[in-house]
Every structure is written in structure tokens, then in C-alpha cells.
Design brief:
Blueprint lengths: L8 E2 L5 E2 L2 E5 L3 H7 L4 H22 L3 E8 L7 H24 L2 E6 L7 H14 L5 E9 L1 H17 L10 H6 L11 E4 L18 E4 L9 H12 L10 H5 L1
Parallel strand pairs: 3-4, 3-7, 4-6, 5-6, 7-8
Antiparallel strand pairs: 1-2
Helix pairs in contact: 1-2, 2-3, 3-4
Bound molecules: 3-methylbut-3-enyl trihydrogen diphosphate (IPE) (2 copies) and magnesium ion (MG).
One 3-methylbut-3-enyl trihydrogen diphosphate binds next to α1.
């Protein structure tokens, strides 16, 4: 991802909203458990809610929405759950792509996509190709994504450049690392939202979150709607982002 964007997004009421937003879609299992339903029902409700989030973010003026859908660690879940998550992934893009198209939403994927089963890779490649000219917002789905795996990927690419004699080790910079991540053109997220109350990053966008603001809510992902998103944006708009410097008020005194 690219270093933090200096472009700003404002909704129609003048609220400052993030240009680039990350969402860890967590809590599907607990949502289902509360209703005495199988975990797969929670994942289905979570997928429905992703469609709502896309619409709401598009209308709010977010330009890049990165959602954590399946981590490199989620393979450790029971085989049946992993299988159902893969099926749901395929179904989501078959069912909802017309609505994403109507909203002008381009779809991209980030993660170790090449290691995924062929049928999933096909959905990713076709989805990206079909939506590449949609102008309003980019939905970036982190699937088989791990922040450490992404840094490993960048390190391997840079090591290749060194081996070819194109780069000297002492010339490796932070910018070069950013440029060799999965999607270097996507700005680092200004805000990361985690529903369901966990206070951890769970290997999401480790490199890119260096100066992200965090917002954690106890609401489980399938219930995380427009009102909750608005609360997160209002809170974000009031944050003093100092990036290691002084706040604008202090700098003047
Ligand atoms: C998030 O919900 C979905 C994935 C990780 C794929 P969970 O399945 O982690 O839900 P909880 O955390 O068990 O409630
Ligand atoms: C993070 O949720 C991954 C996704 C939402 C896809 P997890 O449920 O896998 O994270 P942990 O295990 O609580 O850290
Ligand atoms: Mg979870």
C-alpha cells in the first residue's frame, strides 16, 4: 500500500471520513451462537453485511475499503468451516456483483491468492477483470491474507532485485518495501475498525497500519450497521493525528 494519502474525503454533511478504511469482519461465530445457529449461518449473515458496508462506505465517500475476510491462520479451523467459507466467497461474488456494479464498486483482492484453490483464484481474477473500470470505490478483499506473509512477499521480491544486481542492500528504503507489497497503489488505512470487541490486529495490514487510527466496537460484525459506522467516523473526525509530531494547536504555542 502507498504511504498515507493526503487526499481527504468528506461526506455531504462535511464530516471528514477516511479515504482508506480497513475493517476486520470479526464475530460471525458469536453472532450465530447467540441465536443457537451453526457458525456457517453467522458467516452468511456477515457476508450480507459486507454488501451493506460497501454501499454505506460508497455513499460516505470512502475510496478504498479493505476488509479482512480470511486470514492465513484461518486454515487452522475445522475443514468443514473452511470449506463453507470458500463456498460463501464464490457465492458472494456471483450473487452480489450486479449490486456492486450498480454502486460503481471495483473489486480487488489482497493476500496469498496464488496459493488458493483454482476455483477461488478464478473468482478473484474474473472479479478483478470485470470490475476494473468501476469508478466510485475500491473494495479490497483480504483473503488468505496475513500481514507477515505480505512482508515476506515484499522481502522476497526485494531480495530478487538485489540478486539481479538492480539494488544494493544499503539502498533499500521504507518506500521500496511499501512499493513491493501486494497493492502498492492503495493508500495505508487512516482508520481500522474491529467489531466484536477484540483488542488485537490478528495479522491484518501490519506494515500499513503504522499510523492507522483504531476503533473497536462490541457489536458483532453481522450487526455492525450504518449507525455504528457513523459513530466510528465521528470519533475518527475528532482524533488528533500527530504522526509523532505535535498537535497543530501545540505547534503554534
Ligand atoms: C470472522 O468471524 C470470520 C472469519 C474469521 C472468517 P469469526 O468466525 O472469527 O467469529 P468469532 O470470532 O468466532 O465470533
Ligand atoms: C480475524 O479474525 C480474521 C478475520 C476476520 C478474517 P479471527 O477470528 O481469525 O482472529 P482471532 O483468532 O480472534 O485473533
Ligand atoms: Mg473471530
Amino acid at each position: 500500500m502507498a504511504a498515507s494519502s493526503d487526499k481527504k474525503s468528506y461526506d455531504t454533511t462535511g464530516l471528514k471520513v477516511p479515504v482508506s478504511l480497513g475493517v476486520i469482519m470479526d464475530g460471525n461465530g458469536r453472532w450465530a451462537k447467540k441465536r443457537f445457529l451453526p457458525r456457517s449461518a453467522g458467516h452468511r449473515a456477515g457476508a450480507e453485511n459486507l454488501k451493506e458496508l460497501c454501499r454505506n462506505c460508497g455513499r460516505y465517500g470512502v475510496k478504498y475499503l479493505t476488509v479482512y475476510a480470511f486470514s492465513t491462520e484461518n486454515w487452522s479451523r475445522p475443514e468443514d468451516e473452511v470449506h463453507k467459507l470458500m463456498d460463501l466467497f464464490v457465492e458472494f461474488f456471483e450473487k452480489y456483483d450486479p449490486e456492486l456494479e450498480e454502486e460503481g464498486i471495483r473489486v480487488r483482492f489482497t493476500g496469498d491468492i496464488e496459493s488458493l484453490p483454482e476455483r477461488i483464484k478464478k473468482v478473484c481474477h474474473e472479479g478483478e477483470e470485470r470490475s476494473k473500470n468501476r469508478p466510485k470505490m475500491q473494495l479490497i478483499v483480504a483473503f488468505n491474507y496475513g500481514g507477515r506473509r505480505e512482508i515476506e512477499y515484499a522481502a522476497r521480491r526485494i531480495a530478487g532485485l538485489v540478486k539481479e544486481g538492480k539494488v544494493e542492500p544499503q539502498d533499500i528504503t521504507e518506500q521500496m518495501i511499501s512499493d513491493n507489497m501486494y497493492l502498492p497503489d492503495v493508500p495505508d488505512p487512516e482508520l481500522i475498525i474491529r467489531p466484536s470487541g477484540e483488542m488485537r490486529i490478528s495479522n491484518f495490514l501490519l506494515w500499513e497500519c503504522a499510523y492507522s487510527e483504531f476503533w473497536v466496537s462490541d457489536t458483532l460484525w453481522p450487526d455492525f450497521g450504518y449507525d455504528e459506522l457513523t459513530r466510528a467516523f465521528r470519533d475518527y473526525a475528532g482524533r488528533d493525528r500527530r504522526f509523532g509530531g505535535l498537535s497543530s494547536k501545540e505547534a503554534k504555542t
